[in-house]
Amino acid sequence: MIQRISKLTVFRELQSFFRIKGSINILAAMLVYGCGSGIMRPMNALYLEHHVHLSKLDISLLVSITLVVDMVVTFSIGLLSDKLRRKKTLPLVAAALCMVGLVLYMRADNFPTALFSMILATSPGGIIMGQLFAMARNHFTIEAKPIVEMAMVWLRALFSMGFFLGLLLGAQLFTWVSFQGVLIGNLVGYGLLFLLLIVYQERIGHYEPEKKSTVPFQWLAMIGLLLLLCGDSIRGLYFPLVVDSLFHSPALVSHLWSLQAIFELLWMTLAGYAATRFGALNVIRFGAICGLFVYLVYALHPTLPFLIAMQPIHSFFVSTLYSVAMGYVQRMFLHRTGFGSSLYMFLTQTASLIGFVTPNAISGLTPHIFFLPAGFAIASSLTLFWVARRDRRHSASITTGHSA
Known about the structure:
Elements: H1 7-18, H2 24-50, H3 56-81, H4 89-105, H5 111-122, H6 125-143, H7 148-199, H8 219-247, H9 250-261, H10 264-278, H11 280-299, H12 304-330, H13 337-357, H14 371-403
Helix pairs in contact: 2-6, 2-7, 2-8, 2-9, 3-5, 3-6, 3-13, 4-5, 4-6, 4-7, 6-7, 6-13, 7-9, 7-10, 7-12, 8-9, 8-12, 8-13, 8-14, 9-12, 10-11, 10-12, 11-12, 11-14
């Protein structure tokens, strides 16, 4: 029987998390990286539309090409990173390339220049995120093994907290200095990340993961997660465009997104502990139902009060997808932390590629686009239900065999 988790236990483990020996720089790096991402993420498609004057199809094509490059780079580095004794060099080089790309992106005025600069500015992002999580899992396992799984959840929550701060800052920078201020804010974020990684002392050592933490590799589960990520990628690109077309306010997009992000620390904590009690797949499936409900509301031409009301619900879905689901994939490869972390990033990039292309089947920037992620959520729920059912049957057969 799984032991009940008390509020005191959560508080003590949170204290232990923030006191993990030598972790302050990597925690700060994740927070700063989240902030830089939050500054730019909602504004990127709007920048390409308003400043570079690209069409909806051009934006989808540009982002898709960039993602293909990002996927190749992330997967290749994931295979390589576990062969390296120190992983810190990889995100350091990636952050430097992103800064160079952003400087060029600020001067982009047509499709070719925007494409080249965006590849340079965003393709190394998968390396940064993947290797930060790989270094952190190594660090936490060596320095705080009893809380390593929740520590990874809270690390991802730090990214969300940074993302929330970045959204608010991005909206203000847009109001004060327009798109140029948003780009400079993102550039400063990469600069701070670079400095924090330089001073971080990476943990190097051998450790043996606990057997209870490992998860068997399952193709069907990976497909189910990919479908959910596809739906979220459609929301990520088209939510800002649809909201801007309905309300003509780019800053409103950041404010709505920040309302979602502010709940993620709470939801990620609850989802992490719920996964230990009810199982990761059950929590992910419940999150998928929340996502389906939100997408259907989005698709039905919602008024602003409905959009606001949906953000906390969507926040729970995102929290399960980017904390519990990420940990679920990582635990399939605990002996290869670099590859496991990069594989999840590769899944998100593959989903983004699919999610950016499929909405072109619907003309214009209509809320009906969100019927597509609703369909992905339904397909994912059915797939994960089949996986959970198969797991239960397998566990029952093992129990019967032992009792016999």
